[in-house]
Amino acid sequence: MANSPQARKRARQAEDRRQRNMAQRSTLRTFIKKVIKAIRAEDKEAAVQAFKDAVPRIDRAARKGLIHANKAARHKSRLNAHIKAMA
């Protein structure tokens, strides 16, 4: 347990950041799931629109350090490949 005032403040800050990160990660996953759902439904227009909505969220998460830049690129690349494979 944190004993000094500085350590108590650090514990508070860490908890605030943890909760913020969890919320942002959850939002990110939701946007990615919307794209996947549209792809599975074979609705190309919805998939393209969902992808356009998801890309800025993915980029923002990578920029803020929530996910690694390579993971962001991998998500975008794979989702885009699935959309392009739809006939």
Automatic annotation (TrEMBL):
**Which domain of life does the protein's organism represent?**
Bacteria
Q: Which UniProt keywords apply?
A: Ribonucleoprotein, Ribosomal protein, RNA-binding, rRNA-binding
Q: Where is this region: Disordered?
A: 1-25
One MF term in the entry's GO annotations: small ribosomal subunit rRNA binding
Please provide, in alphabetical order, the Gene Ontology terms of the cellular component aspect for this entry. Answer: cytosol; small ribosomal subunit
Which InterPro entries would you find in this protein's record? Ribosomal_bS20 (IPR002583), Ribosomal_bS20_sf (IPR036510)
| Biological processes annotated in GO | translation
Job of this protein: Binds directly to 16S ribosomal RNA.
Name of the protein described by the UniProt record? Small ribosomal subunit protein bS20
In its UniProt entry, the species of origin is given as Allochromatium palmeri
Q: Which gene encodes it?
A: rpsT
